[in-house]
Amino acid sequence: MFRAIFLTHLISVNIFLIVYLVKTILLVSNKNTALAKFTKVVKVPEMIVSTLFLLTGVYLIMQTGASKLLIIKIIFVLVSIPLAVIGFKKGNKILAVLSMLLIIMAYGFAEMNKKKIVKQEIDPVLANASLPTYDILKHGAALYSAYCQSCHGVEGANGAGGINLTISQKNMEQMKEQVRKGKSSMPPYKDFLNDQEINAVVAYVMTLKK
Q: Which pTM was predicted?
């Protein structure tokens, strides 16, 4: 279900962006007749897309939490919509262009919020589960520092792009599943971390909860 809603959100956002781009180009080009015709044709579809955009966005935030970049993106979108409505209604090119820029910037923040995985080297002594000195939490802490800290912060609560892990309601199995498959802006780690590594990093993350 999450995947379906995420894809619906992605499609609605792209359609929303295309519609506003076309309207802005027509307005700036002084093609008022064409703008009026286009606006009439897309009026109902635009309302449907906007509703899907907002509802699916709210659902995704409720499921994944609101990171700092995501909050900024939401603010930009919420500001851009009334600017666009006023701009197109009044024929104000400056407001229409400003609205379009805010939407593009919001899309940019969404891309910044995505993380590309780069394989990291972990101390082989910490990672060797066959050693009698193996400590799963120390191993997990090393993995967290290498893969998770940049988004979720040193202690899980103050990252630039990740949700606050200290208040997460997910249990250990749910977290393992999310690490494996990813969710929203979080990429899947199943091809980068083995089961032992996933167990270790999740065990460590569980210690961050308040």
A: 0.53
CA–CA dist 62, 112 (Å, integer): 20
CA atoms within 13 A on the CB side of 103: 23
| Interaxial angle between packed helices 2-28 and 32-64, expressed in degrees from 0 to 180 and rounded to the nearest 10 | 150
Dmax over Cα atoms in the chain, in whole Å?
78
| Res. 116 pLDDT band, cuts 50 70 90 | low
Long-range contacts of 86-94 (CB under 8 A, 24+ apart): 87/27, 88/23, 88/27, 88/35, 88/39, 91/27, 91/32, 93/27, 93/28
For residue 151, what are the domain limits? 124-207
Same domain, 108 and 139: no
| Total of domains in the chain | 2
* Residue tagged 């007749």 (tokens): 33
The pLDDT score that the predictor gives to residue 84 is: 86
